[in-house]
Amino acid sequence: MASKYAGDVCVISGSYQNKDGDKRNRYLKLGSYFKDDQGRVGILLQAVPVNMNPGKDGGTWLTMFPAKPADGENTGNNNNPPADDDEAVPF
After folding, report:
1. Could you say which of 13, 19, 39, 80 is the most buried, measured as most Cβ atoms within 10 Å of its Cβ?
2. How far is C-alpha 40 from the geometric centre of its chain's CA atoms?
């Protein structure tokens, strides 16, 4: 069965201070991730980071953010695709 959009894959691209003076990370979207009926996760990268904020191990950490519910949806979870993005991705 086809996979459904589950959220975005991002990398920290810098930081900034908010109006309260707190340090916050700035994220750059690299692609999306998808889940199938068996719970497997697939990642579609549309950009590849080149040594952005390397960790102590020299690698680059990616962060997966769950999809936000579409306007008017109150599902109690964040695993639903936005209403205008119901395109399934086959794996």
Report:
1. 80
2. 16
